[in-house]
Amino acid sequence: MLCDDVKRVIYFFLDDSLGDQKRSSVEIHLSNCPDCEIRVVIQRRLRGFLRKRLTPIAAPETLRVRVVQSLRAQ
User: Fold this and answer.
1) To the nearest 10°, the Cα dihedral for 59, 61, 63, 66?
2) How is the chain split into domains, by residue range?
3) Mean pLDDT over all residues of the chain?
4) For 25-45, how does the pLDDT look when each residue is reduced to its tens digit (9 = 90+)?
């Protein structure tokens, strides 16, 4: 895997939504590439910071009802 490949899948990697083979390839690349490893560390820290600072806001009940009705209609 190349650095450009890691850049394309970094968010999927951090979300743990890659398949086993691709995740393994990214991990191997990160163990051999300090630049990409630093990029991942920075993204993890940024995500942690944002999670701590942002409060989840629930959607209004009327919106939830409209979405459910729309999905049922499909």
Assistant:
1) 150
2) 3-73
3) 93
4) 999 999 999 999 999 999 999
